[in-house]
Design brief:
The chain has 82 residues and is mostly helical. The chain contains five helices and no strands.
Length: 82
Amino acid sequence: MDPAKYDLLYPPLFIYIISAPGIINIDLVFLPLFIADLLTPVILYKFLKNIFNEKIAKWGFILFIFSPLNKLYTGALFLNTY
């Protein structure tokens, strides 16, 4: 498997989701990515709470929020629409 082939592989309908706010104003293109970045820790918390328990879910939530990799590599930085 050649990693260069899958460098810019995004989920289905990704371009449509991020470009829908761009119809109103081009500066709003990052809005869906920002909302997804805000909701990811909440989804992780709920997932961990269902699979494990609340204590592990809280630690997973805190670790995800303060993770340096999460701060550096967000969806907005990967897209480079400007």
